[in-house]
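Cast an eye over this sequence plus tokens and explain the fold to me:
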Amino acid sequence: MIDPRKKLKRRALRNRTRLKKLAGGMPRLSVFRSNKYIYAQVIDDAKSTTLVQASSLEKDADAKVAGNVQAAGIVGKLIAERAKKAGIKQVVFDRGGYIYHGRVKALAEAARGGGLKF
């Protein structure tokens, strides 16, 4: 039996390589989800640097519970605001091996609602 973490990593790498081919130099909005928190960062793969980041750990997130769908929506709004301040309007969404459902979907929809295009 294959370890679930290995399967997640394999899915993430498969998704990421496909995104890098299609991105055409656009920054990548990467999502990491743990049991307690959710993190998002906009990454420039050409320079290998993080341009903006947000997480449910921050005081700005102001979430009652940091690991639920509501917190993911708050993080999505935060990342969209910070990306707009940095001059980033369009990104490629990297769900990181997770299915597009629940917290990942809430973060993506909130980021779209905040003005990011992907």
Q: What stands out?
A: Residues 25 and 47 are 10 Å apart (CA to CA). The domain at 4-113 is CATH 3.30.420.100 (Nucleotidyltransferase; domain 5).
